[in-house]
């Protein structure tokens, strides 16, 4: 309040609104700060308020100091530019007096700095030093690297220039394409466009010529491309010469002659500038032309040579069979532009020719070498960590934590619970205060005070761990004011990850004490990830995949990704670890799971054959016989991880089948080296069924909306208190209690950078054809639903029974099959759906619509 009042008085004084005292204050402010004096009161107030609200925060103090440095440097700069110079016979007092009256320059402070520096290193040196000081203080205040800003600026300029260049290149390519097309079009008709600059003359009303058909009527009733009135003479002459050539070749009569008489095309071209019509009958002219060897204006070739050109393109034998499609074809250029063309036939022919040449073994040596090089296996190069973003070191304020601890103790004491805070662990997103209760204090009492603690700490939500496993303390987890993102790179760089022996180590994140958490998927051996939408599941799956990319060679670890959401995992298409392209169709996903079950069985058979119990033993055996030169020797088995991002979608399409496959895999696949990672945002019991839960022992719970959801995932409350954005309860098999972890973060851009790096390496994924074909042949969900899977087992008997009795009543079915009303009603609905009985008609019984024969026929047809 005091600083506000002082600032207000000082500010108003600057405008002569505070009487004599105000005038004095004004002269002092301007005298000290020069021009800056006008805004000095505002700065004074803002600075004081900032300091008071950030007391004890070393970062804030540092920023304030930087700001003061900026202020002083600015005064110095103003003095250098606008102020009086001491060299001109002025002293510092003069500077002060001058500034106090006019506000010119940087006042006493500016004078001290600028003139001091100028006296030692000269005026230019003073400028330099002051500008550098300004930049340094700006960097300290904004915490943005100056070099980066410059880099960003130049990067932008570079990208802009590059974009422009790309656009220009595209336009040029388009033009070339267009020109080539036109040229070929003209060549088709024997006109050499090289000789003519079509683009210079092209009139607006130029029309596209009708396509010719060489087979049915080679050029006989064709008109030459219609040229507009003002088309240059050159083209007309060429066209007329073409008519002469074709006339000589074809020697066909032309009805148009009746009207034309014996005017030569050349004459006609000269006399007449209307769209040119060919004269087919002028055989003598052809000879005339040949004799006199008339040359075109720009094309220096003779007519003979012209013929050769045509023959180059169409050898005699092919000319007869070669036809150009009636309708103009469309071609999409590299830039995506659709252009009309009829040169497709030409290209086809070229391709055909090449194929023939290749068949005959006409491949050049260089080509062969190149092909062989392609076959040679490429070594997997691990992507560099520099493709990922590096996190900043977290800043903790000791004082803040101490204050919270004292507050906690006091709050509990107010309720008669004596505790002492024994330890504080600062995690990236939450801080845990460990409380040691006094003798005789019940742990449940502390838990029951959760809401009161929340109130006194003004925390969004707190989670109480009572007691902390392995410690005689109760943990109270309070969210941090500032959430520090844990970047994946920080975890991948940690020794825990780098030295981890498993190929499928998973960089999870940082625990409550800020320690890196890395786990082995092989030991999990299957993982269920669940949480509300937006809680961080997809990011978690991304970190898992990235951990594998950074740790494992594609020969050792293979991935199958199922992504019914389509957008989450498709970005990984093209990485060499993939066993098959990312499966986005939920119907095909059950095929992928079936394949995995078959692969598992196959692996077990091989284990039995080689007398080993699991994949490690098998691979060790294979390794020991690697020197044997036998084509059929066993190959090493890669570990397979099946990642499903959204189980709910799969369960909707084929609940029974998916559940079956998951359970079979979950029960047996560990030893076969096949692991499941399943994510879902709907932790309801019909998605995470009891069976799935029992077989997938490791869980990760992200924030959920209710305790019920939390219990569905981890069999206990807790996940509903999480903060979201990667805050998770990590509960791998074998842990006594879930561990709170802040999940590592990797952005989509980083993922694309890494995927680009892998694809640019040229390591194409070696998709397994067997898997693909098996998945493709899997029955679709629709079939599964309609085809019996969903049908009640009494469906058939009930149908027959109703037809026999010729009466459709639910009560009758209930009595007959000794089933409940719901089930009987469901069977009746299924029969109605199949057309065996009619729709409901109020209280009247349904009509029976089929005879026994019709019903049996329907069953035979596979309904
Ligand atoms: N570990 C993390 N650290 C920081 N922020 C995170 C983290 N994980 C997720 N987030 C933030 O949460 C947002 C949502 O995450 P994500 O897309 O993974 O949610 P989701 O659970 O997969 O949601 P949905 O089920 O709707 O796809 C992300 O865009 C990101 O901003």
Number of structural domains: 5
- CATH homologous superfamily of the largest domain? P-loop containing nucleotide triphosphate hydrolases
| Estimated radius of gyration | 42 Å
- Compounds present? adenosine-5'-triphosphate
Instruction: Estimate percent helicity.
Output: 40-55%
The CATH architecture term of the largest domain is 3-Layer(aba) Sandwich
Distance from first to last alpha carbon:
84 Å
Specify the structural class.
alpha/beta
Specify the CATH class of the largest domain.
Alpha Beta
Overall average pLDDT? 75
Number-wise, the strands total 15
Major beta-sheet overview: 9 strands, mixed
- Note the overall shape: extended
How much strand content do the residues show?
5-15%
- How are the strands of the biggest sheet laid out side by side? 8-7-15-14-13-9-12-11-10
How many individual helices?
35
Give descriptors for this structure.
863 residues; Threonyl-tRNA Synthetase, Chain A, domain 2; 5 domains; four-stranded antiparallel beta sheet; extended; binds adenosine-5'-triphosphate
Protein architecture, described:
There is one protein chain. The protein is α/β, with parallel strands linked by helices and 863 residues long. It folds into five domains: 147 residues, no CATH class; 138 residues, no CATH class; 82 residues, Threonyl-tRNA Synthetase, Chain A, domain 2 (2-Layer Sandwich), CATH 3.30.980.40; 281 residues, P-loop containing nucleotide triphosphate hydrolases (Rossmann fold); 70 residues, Arc Repressor Mutant, subunit A (Orthogonal Bundle), CATH 1.10.10.10. Helices cover 51% and strands 10% of the residues. It contains 35 helices and 15 strands. The strands form three sheets. A nine-stranded mixed β-sheet has the order 8-7-15-14-13-9-12-11-10. The protein has a four-stranded antiparallel β-sheet with strand order 3-4-6-5. A two-stranded antiparallel sheet has the order 1-2. It is extended, with a radius of gyration of 42 Å. The structure holds adenosine-5'-triphosphate. The site of adenosine-5'-triphosphate (ATP) has 15 residues, from helix 22. Adenosine-5'-triphosphate binds next to helix 22.
């Amino acid at each position: 309040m005091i600083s506000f009042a002082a600032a207000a008085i000082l500010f108003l004084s600057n405008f002569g609104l505070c009487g004599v005292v105000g005038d004095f204050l004004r002269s002092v402010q301007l005298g000290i700060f020069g021009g800056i004096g006008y805004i000095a009161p505002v700065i004074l107030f803002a600075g004081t308020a900032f300091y008071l609200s950030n007391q004890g925060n070393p970062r804030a103090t540092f920023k304030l100091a930087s700001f003061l440095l900026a202020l002083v440097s600015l005064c110095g700069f103003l003095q250098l530019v606008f102020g009086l110079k001491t060299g001109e016979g002025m002293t510092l007092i003069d500077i002060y007096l001058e500034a106090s009256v006019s506000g010119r320059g940087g006042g006493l402070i500016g004078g001290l700095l600028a003139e001091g520096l100028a006296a030692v290193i000269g005026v230019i040196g003073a400028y330099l030093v002051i500008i550098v000081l300004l930049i340094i203080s700006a960097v300290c205040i904004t915490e943005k690297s100056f070099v980066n800003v410059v880099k960003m600026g130049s990067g932008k300029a570079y990208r802009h220039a590059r974009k422009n260049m790309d656009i220009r290149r595209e336009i040029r390519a388009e033009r070339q394409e267009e020109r080539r097309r036109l040229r070929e079009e003209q060549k088709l008709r024997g006109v050499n466009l090289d000789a003519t600059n079509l683009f210079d003359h092209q009139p607006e009303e130029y029309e596209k010529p009708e396509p010719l058909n060489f087979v049915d009527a080679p050029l006989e009733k064709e008109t030459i491309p219609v040229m507009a009135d003002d088309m240059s003479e050159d083209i007309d002459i060429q066209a007329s010469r073409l008519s002469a050539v074709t006339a000589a070749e074809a020697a066909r009569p032309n009805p148009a002659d009746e009207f034309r008489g014996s005017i030569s095309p050349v004459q006609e071209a000269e006399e007449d500038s209307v769209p040119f019509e060919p004269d087919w009958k002028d055989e003598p002219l052809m000879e005339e032309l040949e004799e006199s060897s008339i040359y075109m204006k720009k094309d220096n070739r003779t007519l003979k040579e012209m013929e050769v050109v045509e023959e180059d393109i169409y050898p005699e034998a092919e000319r007869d069979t070669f036809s150009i499609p009636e309708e103009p074809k469309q071609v999409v250029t590299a830039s995506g532009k659709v252009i009309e063309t009829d040169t497709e036939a030409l290209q086809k022919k070229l391709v055909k020719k090449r194929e023939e040449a290749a068949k005959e073994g006409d491949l050049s040596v260089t080509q062969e070498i190149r092909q062989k090089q392609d076959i040679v296996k490429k070594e997997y190069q691990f992507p560099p960590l520099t493709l990922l973003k590096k996190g900043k070191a977290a800043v903790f304020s000791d004082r803040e934590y101490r204050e919270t601890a004292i507050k906690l103790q006091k709050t509990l004491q107010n309720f008669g619970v004596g505790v002492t805070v024994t330890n504080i662990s600062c995690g990236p997103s939450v801080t845990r205060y460990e409380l040691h209760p006094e003798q005789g204090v019940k742990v449940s009492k502390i838990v029951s005070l959760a809401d009161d603690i929340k109130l006194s700490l003004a925390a969004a939500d707190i989670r109480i761990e009572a007691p902390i496993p392995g410690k005689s303390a109760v943990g109270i987890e309070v969210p941090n004011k500032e959430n520090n993102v844990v970047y994946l790179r920080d975890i991948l760089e940690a020794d825990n990850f780098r030295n981890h022996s498993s190929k499928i180590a998973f960089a999870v994140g940082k625990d409550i004490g800020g320690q890196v958490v890395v786990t082995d998927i092989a030991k999990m051996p299957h993982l269920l990830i669940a949480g509300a939408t937006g809680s961080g599941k997809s990011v978690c799956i991304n970190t898992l995949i990235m951990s594998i990319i950074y740790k494992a060679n594609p020969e050792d670890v293979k991935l199958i990704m199922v992504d019914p959401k389509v957008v989450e995992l498709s970005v990984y298409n093209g990485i060499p670890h993939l066993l098959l392209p990312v499966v986005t169709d939920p119907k095909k996903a059950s095929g992928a799971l079936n394949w995995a079950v078959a692969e598992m069985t196959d692996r077990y058979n091989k284990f039995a054959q080689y007398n080993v119990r699991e994949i490690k033993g098998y691979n060790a055996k294979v390794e020991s016989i690697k020197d044997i030169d036998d084509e059929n020797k066993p190959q090493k088995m890669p570990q397979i991880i099946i990642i499903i991002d959204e189980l709910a979608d799969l369960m909707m399409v084929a609940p029974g089948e998916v559940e079956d496959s998951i359970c079979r895999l979950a029960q047996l696949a560990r030893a076969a080296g096949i692991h499941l990672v399943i994510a879902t945002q709907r932790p309801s019991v019909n998605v995470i069924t009891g069976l799935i839960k029992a077989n997938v022992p490791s869980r990760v719970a992200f924030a959920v909306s209710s305790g019920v959801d939390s219990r569905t995932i981890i069999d206990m409350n807790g996940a509903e208190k999480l903060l979201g954005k990667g805050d998770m309860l990590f509960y791998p098999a074998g842990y006594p209690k879930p561990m709170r972890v802040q999940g590592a973060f990797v952005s989509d851009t980083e993922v694309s950078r890494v995927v680009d790096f892998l694809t640019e390496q040229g390591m194409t994924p070696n998709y397994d054809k067997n898997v693909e074909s098996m998945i493709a042949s899997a029955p679709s969900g629709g079939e599964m639903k309609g085809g019996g899977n969903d049908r009640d087992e009494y469906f058939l008997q009930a149908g027959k029974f109703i037809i026999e009795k010729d009466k459709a009543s639910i009560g009758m079915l209930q009595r007959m099959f000794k089933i409940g009303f719901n089930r009987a009603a469901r069977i009746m609905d299924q029969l109605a759906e199949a057309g065996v009985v009619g729709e409901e008609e109020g209280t009247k019984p349904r009509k029976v619509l089929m005879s026994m024969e019709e019903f049996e026929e329907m069953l035979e047809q596979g309904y």
